[in-house]
Specification:
CATH topology of the largest domain: Quinone Oxidoreductase, Chain A, domain 1
Number of domains: 2
Distance between the termini: 9 Å
CATH class of the largest domain: Alpha Beta
Number of strands: 16
Strand content: 15-25%
Radius of gyration: 22 Å
Number of helices: 10
CATH superfamily of the largest domain: Medium-chain alcohol dehydrogenases, catalytic domain
Structural class: alpha/beta
Helix content: 25-40%
Shape: globular
């Protein structure tokens, strides 16, 4: 049970536990830098606002944006010690009077800060109910990356039967989802990866062909398709010039990430001369209402439940091992989703 007991400034923090105030664990940092700045600490529980629902976390999604926030390259919310993370799945701990949920309901979210903790206050509109067939780990693996693949292929560029699609970082979480969704739409898919092992993953999830970045992939793509591809899903930035080079006249590059750290565009006059389009793509411009979240999430869930899309097993770390999780992702070792799960034995409550 969570008691709203306020302590005076002179009270010691440990008295919160004595008075019945829960104290949760969270992965935090108080300065920007390498994974060495991460600390697994006791912090105060979230304070629920009127529209919030309290969620006890079971699985958390780690994303490259989290690494960039830790480094100070993305804006952070709150004050130090900062709690990172925006994606997770768990159970409702306190519905806070919202009729749409009851305590114990299984839920997930993709766009709420302070997620790298045992408890998260999530606005009612941002919570998505989980079907019984979708596990916490699967939900935390696909909420952000699955929704990203869905809007990229339905809104940024509506993939059609017979189109030729090039997918960057094809063995990553978004890349794997993009390949499968494009194949569902009847497209041919070329994947780009950084290693032979990742190339095999791209092929295993449905890519028709895959090339390595250290190959002359521009030439190889144009040898297969001399007129170029219909659309490139570009998430690197430093590869933009070649992405444009393999895009056909009147074709499109959907630019949704910059894992390479910068954008290298090439000669913009060449873009004009060939009537090629670069489209920026950000998921948050599409998750604008509860209805949109539910509609888009249910599309992903139904694909998974029906077996049309497969989600490879994630790599899972304990939340207390957050540094290892960050190092694993930063070392480009991941070939799918990286998750963290709370160390439930550390949860402090009063009987």
């Amino acid at each position: 049970m969570h008691f709203d007991i306020k302590c005076k400034k002179e009270q010691k923090p440990e008295l919160f536990v004595i008075l019945g105030k829960l104290k949760m664990k969270a992965l935090t940092f108080s300065s920007f830098g390498s994974s060495d700045v991460l600390e697994y600490l006791d912090v105060a529980d979230p304070v629920l606002q009127k529209n919030d629902v309290l969620v006890e976390i079971r699985a958390l999604g780690l994303n490259y944006a989290d690494l960039m926030r830790r480094k100070g390259e993305y804006p952070m919310r709150g004050v130090a010690p900062f709690i990172n993370g925006f994606e997770g799945a768990g159970v409702v701990k306190n519905s806070n009077g919202h009729a749409g949920f009851k305590n114990g309901d299984r839920v997930a979210f993709a766009d709420i800060p302070f997620a790298n903790a045992e408890l998260v206050a999530v606005p009612f509109d941002n919570l998505v109910p989980l079907p019984g067939e979708i596990s916490f780990e699967t939900a935390a693996s696909v909420m952000l990356q699955g929704l990203t693949a869905q809007f990229l292929t339905a809104d940024s560029h509506k993939v059609k039967k017979g189109e030729i699609v090039l997918v960057h970082a094809a063995a990553g979480g978004v890349g794997q989802m993009l390949i499968q969704v494009c194949k569902l739409s009847g497209a041919k898919v070329i994947g780009l990866t950084s290693s032979e092992s990742k190339k095999l993953i791209a092929l295993a999830v449905g890519a028709d062909v895959a090339f390595l970045y250290d190959q002359d992939w521009k030439t190889k793509v144009l040898e297969l398709f001399p007129d170029g591809v219909d659309v490139v899903y570009e998430s690197i930035g430093t590869t933009m010039e070649w992405s444009l080079a393999v895009t056909k006249v009147l074709g499109q590059v959907v630019f949704f990430g910059m894992a390479g750290g910068k954008l290298e565009l090439g000669n913009p006059l060449w873009i004009i001369a060939n009537s090629k389009t670069i489209t920026g793509a950000d998921l948050w411009n599409y998750l604008v209402s509860r209805e949109e979240r539910l509609k888009r999430a249910n599309v992903i869930f139904n694909w998974i439940i029906s077996g049309k899309i497969k989600v490879l097993p994630p790599t899972v770390f304990k939340l207390s091992e957050g540094k290892k999780a960050h190092d694993f992702m930063e070392g480009r070792q991941s070939t799918g989703k990286v998750l963290m799960v709370p160390d439930m034995e550390d949860r402090k409550t009063e009987d």
